């Protein structure tokens, strides 16, 4: 190996590889290393052509400048230091390491013992694997110089946001009208036909499952499966290469820019709670080899063991300032360089957990709150993990929104027919103020959803009472066992006309409730075409038709597609859904009345009657709101038809039917304020009325 590169001290900032007129500067953090070598590779990535010792500067930053180096240079690190797992140190210069700040990677990762520094004794003596060089099967970091994002962002308010959660690959892989080269890729999402699909639904924002470079766990590869969802991050700056057409990371930028040109925002799902290095038997690819005791949270009593609040083998140590910096730098990179509009944080309580527990004033939250870039983007928390105090729904800072699983479970149970749920159903429908109003947040703090990538699809929720996960190879033990689902007479697909009709009607009920609730609605991709995973409620490892959406020339004709479009239009029409604050009895703009089936305000006995499964939701604009109709939604979750008396109001002469969830087309569209409506079993009606202004100007 010959060193033909001119090498100088360079600078300790910025971290990562940085192009300059002089060459490429390299900087990496390690507090406990004794020596850090920059390893350069030829264009193929197969031959190591130089090892250059970095200089240890202030604050444990190792740095150096390769004069004359240009974009495209491939590199990695070899880091020397003590191998003392009992003290938390796992250094091994035989393991080539990816730059934590790498902006691009080249070369494939292949599972083997080459990457390991410790293995179960039953398999092999660990000292032998520590002597194996891992460079041949480790991706190389690649120097690039991507220019900042220069598109115009839609800047859609939270109150106008409708989220569509989707998987990059699964959303377009089977779309016949998307060019074959772009199917399953970032660019596939930016093709006109897919944008047309989003716009036809009324979607304002797509939320993409993990886009960071990720790898599959070894136990999945050994079973012939893969980590399809992508919650196993290898690098926090690099777009997942399988979603690129030509391994050009600017393709992600291009996708975002095109979507923005059509007023569609992009939120990405990010996994800053753990990495793909797993537990002590996992691969050494980056952080473990750079400074294991600082990058990860270790058991203070036995530093050989990783704290596993994620269930994935390790937990990122966000309490260390350099790890916190890494995550913040990554977030800013995706906003400023890649152009995204926000983030959904997987297992978010980990990001606010100190050794003493979850803190809303954790340095991570404080840093984002004062950051001029990150404080202006959309921030969504998955507010639970498996660590101590891991359920934090409603506990995040004021700028954050949260996935509301209480909303999900309540709505599923209500429409399934569970009794005694009316008070909580109303509270969730109205924005869950019991969860979010305590710290000054409004209804938009609640990300409402019925289904997401994790769990049953909407179609399966009304088709299966039990999970069917045998394809995952875990004896059907994985995934949630209580899904609050129902099959309405037969498990799985059937040809019974009545069962099929009820299943469609229940999907409509759930969608109507979702899109006409206070809060931010999130629709899971495939709901609009009744996509099924055949009862698999944990399809994280199924890269096949279980997850791939089936588009054909008739998908726009599916009744759920038109129904979602209709509901989004209704939501956009009524100003009450644009309110920033919760609606209470003294609201200056709107009057809210909960109605019994008698058309009168609900009484205490109506709320406490456990057999009561009927409710009216009436929103009337006050005089301060001009040219706005009243909105009335009638819910009947019972197994039989119930008659609703329309509310008598002097200011309302007639009601107009906007939509129902029943399959039977209503013969009437207009009703007087004294009419009685027969609302069929397990169905909803939505009506509107013009508010008549009196001569004196009152309503």
TrEMBL record:
The answer on whether this UniProt entry bears the keyword Hydrolase reads yes
In Gene Ontology terms, what is one molecular function of this protein? amylo-alpha-1,6-glucosidase activity
Q: Which UniProt keywords apply?
A: Glycosidase, Hydrolase
Domain (Glycosyl hydrolase family 13 catalytic) spans 161-571
Q: Which GO terms describe its biological process?
A: glycogen catabolic process
Keyword presence, Cytoplasm: no
Family (UniProt):
Belongs to the glycosyl hydrolase 13 family.
Which PANTHER family does the entry link to? GLYCOGEN DEBRANCHING ENZYME (PTHR43002)
What NCBIfam families does its record include? Answer: glgX_debranch
Q: What is this protein called?
A: Glycogen debranching enzyme GlgX
Q: Which organism is it from?
A: Pseudoalteromonas ulvae
């Amino acid at each position: 190996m010959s060193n033909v590169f001119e090498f100088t001290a360079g600078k300790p900032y910025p971290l990562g590889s940085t192009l300059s007129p002089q060459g490429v500067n390299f900087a990496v953090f390690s507090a406990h290393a004794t020596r850090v070598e920059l390893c350069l590779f030829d264009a193929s990535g197969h031959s190591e052509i130089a090892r250059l010792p970095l200089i240890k500067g202030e604050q444990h930053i190792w740095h150096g400048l390769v004069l004359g180096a240009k974009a495209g240079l491939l590199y990695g690190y070899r880091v020397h230091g003590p191998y003392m797992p009992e003290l938390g140190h796992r250094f091994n210069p035989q393991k080539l390491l990816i730059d934590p700040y790498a902006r691009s990677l080249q070369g494939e990762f292949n599972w083997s013992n080459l990457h390991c520094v410790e293995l179960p004794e039953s398999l092999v003596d660990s000292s032998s694997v520590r002597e194996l060089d891992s460079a041949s099967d480790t991706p190389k970091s690649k120097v690039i110089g991507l220019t900042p994002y220069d598109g115009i962002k839609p800047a859609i308010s939270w109150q106008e946001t409708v989220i569509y959660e989707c998987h990059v690959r699964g959303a377009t892989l089977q779309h016949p009208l998307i060019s074959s080269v772009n199917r399953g890729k970032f660019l596939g999402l930016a093709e006109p036909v897919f944008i047309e699909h989003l716009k036809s639904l009324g979607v304002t924002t797509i939320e993409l499952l993990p886009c960071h470079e990720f790898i599959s766990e070894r136990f999945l590869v050994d079973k012939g499966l893969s980590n399809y969802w992508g919650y196993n991050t290898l690098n926090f700056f690099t777009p997942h290469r399988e979603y690129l057409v030509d391994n050009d990371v600017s393709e992600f930028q291009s996708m975002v820019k095109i979507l923005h040109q059509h007023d569609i925002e992009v939120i990405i799902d990010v996994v800053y709670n753990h990495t793909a290095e797993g537990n002590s038997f996992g691969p050494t690819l980056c952080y473990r080899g750079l400074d294991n005791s600082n990058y990860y949270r270790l058991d203070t009593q036995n530093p050989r063991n990783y704290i596993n609040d994620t269930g994935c083998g390790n937990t990122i140590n966000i309490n260390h300032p350099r790890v916190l910096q890494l995550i913040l730098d990554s977030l800013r990179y995706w906003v400023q360089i890649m152009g995204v509009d926000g983030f959904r944080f997987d297992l978010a309580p980990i990001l606010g957990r100190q050794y003493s527990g979850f803190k809303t004033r954790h340095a991570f939250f404080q840093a984002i709150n004062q950051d001029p870039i990150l404080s202006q983007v959309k921030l969504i928390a998955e507010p639970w993990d498996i660590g101590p105090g891991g359920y934090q729904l409603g506990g995040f800072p004021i700028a954050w929104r949260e996935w509301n699983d209480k909303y999900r479970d309540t709505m599923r149970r209500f429409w399934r027919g569970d009794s005694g749920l009316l008070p909580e159903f109303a509270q969730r429908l109205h924005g869950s103020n019991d969860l979010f109003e305590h710290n000054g947040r409004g209804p938009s703090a609640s990300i409402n959803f019925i289904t997401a990538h994790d769990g049953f699809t909407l179609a399966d929720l009304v088709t299966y009472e039990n999970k069917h996960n045998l394809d995952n190879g875990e004896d059907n033990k994985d995934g949630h066992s209580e899904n609050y689902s129902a099959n309405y007479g037969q498990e799985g697909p059937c040809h019974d006309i009545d069962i099929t009709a009820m299943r469609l009607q229940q999907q409509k009920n759930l969608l109507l409730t979702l899109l006409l609730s206070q809060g931010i609605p999130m629709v899971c991709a495939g709901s609009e075409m009744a996509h099924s995973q055949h009862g698999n409620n944990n399809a994280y490892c199924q890269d096949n038709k279980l997850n791939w959406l089936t588009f054909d020339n008739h998908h726009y004709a599916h009744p759920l597609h038109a129904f979602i479009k209709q509901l989004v239009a209704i939501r956009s029409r009524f100003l009450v859904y644009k309110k920033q604050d919760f609606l209470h009895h003294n609201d200056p703009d709107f009057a809210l009345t909960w109605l019994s089936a008698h058309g009168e305000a609900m009484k205490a006995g109506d709320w406490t009657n456990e057999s009561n499964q009927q409710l009216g939701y009436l929103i009337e604009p006050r005089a301060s709101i001009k040219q706005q109709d009243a909105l009335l939604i009638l819910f009947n979750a019972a197994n039989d038809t119930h008659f609703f008396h329309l509310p008598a109001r002097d200011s309302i002469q007639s009601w107009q039917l906007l939509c129902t969830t029943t399959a039977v087309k209503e013969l009437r569209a207009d009703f007087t304020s004294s009419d009685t409506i027969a609302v069929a079993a397990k169905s909803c009606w939505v009506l509107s009325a013009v508010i008549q202004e009196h001569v004196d100007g009152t309503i």
